[in-house]
Amino acid sequence: MEHGSLNDPSKATFSFVDEDHTLANSVRFCLNQDPRVSVCGYSIPHPSDARVNIRIQTTGEPAREVLKDGCQNLMLMCQHVRGTLDKAVADFRMNNPTKMETKSDSEMET
Amino acid sequence: MNEKENKGGNNDEPNKKFSIWDLPDVPMGQLPPHLQLQKTRVVCKADAPIHTDNISYSGAYASIGVDNSVHLDLFRDNFKVNVIRLTKEDMEFDMIGIDPALANAFRRILISEVPTMAIEKVLIAYNTSVVQDEVLAHRLGLVPLKADPRLFEYLSANDTPNEKNTIVFKLHASCKRGERRTVYSEELKWLPKGSELIKEAGQADSKPTTYTSFTCSQDVLPEFSEDPISPSEDKIILAKLGSKQEIELEAHAVKGLGKTHAKWSPVATAWYRMLPEVVLLEDVEDEVAEELVRRCPDKVFDIEDIGHGKKRATVARPRDCRLCRECVRGEGWEERVELRRVKDHFIFTVESTGVLPPEVLFTEAVKILEEKCERVISELS
């Protein structure tokens, strides 16, 4: 849900339901790194409601587009994280084939 | 001298014109070292840490001409993952080049938003033990079940329990006269064909129905035929029985999130810490070095001989530092040792309860964050 003005699409507050710090902080971080954003922040009006308000003010571009791009970037970052982790786990397993032991063994260091 | 550009116009005397770009200590495009320290390290002083906030705003250093924006390619080049330890139950790995916002998001999702299966409804037929019904049901709910939650669907209030959203267990334990006995979680038997308790039917001529309606047996599925569903630990104590006491019950497990109840959390816990960096600001020698090595309970420091009978302290294992701050407590120590944390290097530890292997859990958590973003994007479009 977007609360903005009809005349000025570069400033808006987006209200998300059923979200909390998990998504809001990550999106805020991604948006802050975007050079088109002049102000970006989030707030949780009341902790009992699962609602989050994200405020975006840009240097001219419509805030909705910038938010979409920020979420897109966040998705790509997550995909990259997943790929890197899978590769790292595969490399670790290749280099340490005997270290997949059960819980009865004590902690081992590589 | 008079031909230099005048930037800013701060003229005290009309003949003194200078340009800030000629000053040697502001290199173009790079932060000066004290700002670089503020941006990338948390300094843990003896009383409190400083520089704890993350300067992620793209225009933070615009006044000195440094661009703080990060493009996706830069993130991709800098991001690294090193796995330190990986067993069936827990995993420790390093993530380098990521921001605390993302690391915390992954941690929060791991604890509360990765779905699992846990016992929700307990149909108690007979319970004469000293453990009350509700206490026994609560304990059963907390038992972690080794069932892949991705193969099941959620059960909502108006759905019928069927083989796609419910797992049924049976527990029937009794104790002989004159003995005492402990009931362990290994006695929870999986019923792949569904519930066996018959409902009290109103009409006498209708077929007796049970509490679930399984259309096919669950062990037909290939994942379950070799690896039957069971609690992930065998020796969890559920109840203790005395002479001639008996428990007979049926437990139905459904899919849920840790947000609703902690029994659905797939990790015992998951945490991260930033990589410690211990820096000796000046040469620490002889007795002071010995004292430093003695002070640290984690054996972070070591003594090395530099000849002529003199000894010097070095930082041998900074990763083991647990920030007890013993090395900076007392007079004069803060000038010798500085404790820092690297802001973008996280040491993640994930301890699974046995539902899924820890690396699969982390991958699921990342996927869930991606799904949240997708939902936001589709709502906006």
From TrEMBL, chain A:
Residues that span the membrane, as ranges: none
UniProt GO cellular component terms: RNA polymerase I complex; RNA polymerase III complex
Record keyword Ribosomal protein present: no
InterPro entries documented for this protein: RBP11-like, RBP11-like_dimer, RNA_pol_Rpb11_13-16kDa_CS, RNAP_AC19, Rpo11-like
GO biological process, one term: transcription by RNA polymerase III
Residue ranges occupied by any DNA-directed RNA polymerase RBP11-like dimerisation domain in the UniProt entry: 12-82
Protein name, entry field: DNA-directed RNA polymerases I and III subunit RPAC2
Record-stated family: Belongs to the archaeal Rpo11/eukaryotic RPB11/RPC19 RNA polymerase subunit family.
Superkingdom as given in the UniProt entry: Eukaryota
Organism ancestry: Eukaryota, Viridiplantae, Streptophyta, Embryophyta, Tracheophyta
Assigned keywords, A-Z: DNA-directed RNA polymerase, Nucleus, Transcription
HAMAP family recorded: RNApol_arch_Rpo11 (MF_00261)
Any GO molecular function: DNA-directed RNA polymerase activity
Location(s) in or outside the cell: Nucleus
From TrEMBL, chain B:
SUPFAM superfamilies: Insert subdomain of RNA polymerase alpha subunit, RBP11-like subunits of RNA polymerase
Entry-linked Gene3D superfamilies: DNA-directed RNA polymerase, insert domain, RNA polymerase, RBP11-like subunit
Keyword set, alphabetical order: DNA-directed RNA polymerase, Nucleus, Transcription
All residue ranges annotated as the DNA-directed RNA polymerase RpoA/D/Rpb3-type domain in the record: 90-379
One of the record's GO molecular function terms: DNA-directed RNA polymerase activity
InterPro entries linked to this entry: DNA-dir_RNA_pol_30-40kDasu_CS, DNA-dir_RNA_pol_insert, DNA-dir_RNA_pol_RpoA/D/Rpb3, RBP11-like, RNAP_Rpo3/Rpb3/RPAC1, RNAPI/III_AC40, RNApol_insert_sf, Rpo3/RPB3_RNA_Pol_subunit
Subcellular location, record wording: Nucleus
Entry superkingdom: Eukaryota
One GO CC annotation: RNA polymerase I complex
Entries under Pfam families matching the protein: RNA_pol_A_bac, RNA_pol_L
Single GO BP term: DNA-templated transcription
Family recorded in the similarity comment: Belongs to the archaeal Rpo3/eukaryotic RPB3 RNA polymerase subunit family.
Protein name in UniProt: DNA-directed RNA polymerases I and III subunit RPAC1
Lineage: Eukaryota, Viridiplantae, Streptophyta, Embryophyta, Tracheophyta
